[in-house]
Specification:
heterodimer, A: about 190 residues, mainly alpha, Rna Polymerase Sigma Factor, Chain: A, Arc Repressor Mutant, subunit A, 2 domains, 8 helices, B: about 300 residues, alpha+beta, four-stranded antiparallel β-sheet, 7 helices, about 20% strand
């Protein structure tokens, strides 16, 4: 971002912090897609991701004045979003079980891909929220490990460790002989 | 190594599958919600003596909170078997020295105890009064008590610092503790009595709001702080009240909070209760509702 863009964004943040809803809208609109995709990949649920983004943005709107370092708006927004996702995952664990509905295809290759997806889906859902967040922020959102450490407020080594062990758990289900059985067909 | 890279490529490709843009309605929904939520932070009331205080490390805060809760509960247990006889004539006390931001309505007697030393503890029955602080007013019935223990103040501060927006705090504050050392012996309810101390929130100072909207705001903040909040409603004879329930786990005993939101005379009113360990049972819940009804009835 060039200097002019930084200044413009700084002015937008200042206006939004003073209660200018239009400025806030202008501030978050270009970020909405990435925030939504991040939440969607962490939660594996579009509706829950919409809720999470909405809640995080309401928190951002309410607490924008508390943002001391305005250069770190993105990191702050991701932090709010990830926390909202954590909460969503916690409440979902109490209230509901996730049901994955798989598409049916007849050709063998596609069926294998479905099995891979199913295995990954199941393995990913078994990951802790911390590992999910790190994997998504790194491989989907494209943040560096240092940036993720800033977002999550944990040491970089912790981020590296979560990424390593998270991917290891996902790899395990793809290794030959480890693939989970496909969903049984009804008789 | 190559195999691992292949696996990672498969994983990353799978992770990136799916939608890449937010639903078009999301921006409009956020605009709508944001338009209904004031940016001013005064809508979340902070305790006056914790306002502006630097945040301490959360781990330390939790340890201190645990210690404070344990102190208060031990005090309650200790004192529950030795209830002094009631004193029909309330004593008058000097002006507050513990809550410097508190203001009193003209003509009222100060509700706060003196910290001046006296030779023997004197049983104290503070008179009914209204304690007003910016944005909130508490209606205190005769016999309310003020535990002069520093741990209680600390506990309140810790709750505030870890993001609990004053919920349950006033009730904890007003809960009688007779074992606390100090110049006065404080009134204690009979064993088994509801320890609500008669706290009535007169107004939450929220203008142009509704009880459901205000409950949603509080819920959003609590959920943002990581609490799992259950929302429900109760029907009263003259309308309804929104109820929020949530638990807070400390190193000490867990606390369950219940907050009622209702509209009275065009203003949103909020009434908080804290119970140690579990949600209030049926009998206690009925008593809490009686308090809510009394607020509704004015």
């Amino acid at each position: 971002m060039d200097n002019r863009a930084v200044l413009e964004e700084g002015a937008l943040i200042a206006r939004a912090a003073d209660g200018d809803a239009a400025a806030f809208d202008e501030l978050i609109r270009p970020r909405l897609d990435r925030l939504y995709v991040t939440a969607n990949r962490i939660l594996r649920d579009g509706a829950a991701a919409e809720d999470a983004v909405q809640q995080a943005m309401v928190l951002a709107w309410r607490d924008l004045r508390a943002l001391r370092d305005r250069d770190r708006l993105d990191a702050w927004l991701y932090r709010l979003l990830v926390r909202t996702c954590y909460r969503e995952l916690r409440s979902r664990r109490r209230l509901a079980a996730n049901v994955v509905q798989l598409e049916r295809r007849d050709d063998a290759d596609a069926t294998l891909a479905i099995h891979e997806r199913d295995a990954l889906e199941r393995a990913f859902r078994r990951l802790s929220a911390d590992k999910r967040a790190v994997i998504v922020l790194h491989h989907v959102t494209g943040l560096s490990l240092i940036e993720i450490a800033g977002v999550l407020a944990v040491p970089e080594g912790t981020v590296r460790s979560r990424l390593h062990y998270g991917l290891q758990e996902l790899r395990r289900v793809l290794e030959p002989g480890e693939m989970v059985d496909p969903v049984e067909e009804p008789a | 190594m190559t195999e691992m890279a292949d696996l990672d490529r498969t994983i990353v490709a799978w992770l990136r599958e799916g939608e890449t843009v937010a639903p078009s309605r999301l921006a409009a929904e956020i605009r709508l919600v944001v338009g209904a939520v004031p940016v001013q932070r005064g809508s979340l009331l902070r305790l006056p003596w914790t306002r502006g205080r630097d945040r301490r490390p959360r781990a330390l805060a939790l340890v201190l909170a645990g210690a404070a809760v344990a102190t208060v509960l031990l005090g309650l247990l200790w004192s529950s078997g030795s209830v002094p006889p009631p004193n029909p004539s309330p004593s008058t006390m000097p002006s507050p020295s513990v809550a410097p931001h508190a203001t009193e309505e003209p003509g009222r007697t100060s509700p706060l105890p003196s910290v001046q030393a006296t030779a023997e503890p004197v049983e104290t029955y503070p008179p009914a009064t209204t304690l007003s602080v910016p944005g909130i007013a508490l209606d205190l019935p005769a016999g309310w008590s003020w535990p002069p223990s520093g741990s209680t103040i600390l506990f309140i501060g810790v709750l505030d610092e870890i993001g609990d927006p004053y919920a349950g705090v006033y009730n904890m504050l007003l809960r009688p503790v007779t074992s606390a050392s100090g110049p006065h012996r404080f009134h204690s309810p009979a064993f088994g009595a509801t320890p609500d101390a008669g706290m009535h929130v007169l107004t939450a100072g929220i203008q142009e709001s509704t009880a459901p909207l205000e409950a949603d705001r509080v819920r959003a903040v609590l959920e943002g702080a990581g609490y799992v909040v259950a929302r429900s409603s109760v029907k009263l004879a003259t309308g309804g009240a929104i109820v929020l329930d949530w638990d807070v786990t400390y190193n000490g005993p867990d606390l369950h909070y219940r907050a009622y939101f209702l509209m009275v005379g065009g203003a949103v009113r909020r009434i908080d209760f804290a119970t140690p360990g579990a949600p209030p049972g049926e009998a206690l819940a009925t008593q809490l509702l009686d308090i809510v009804r009394s607020v509704r009835a004015g």
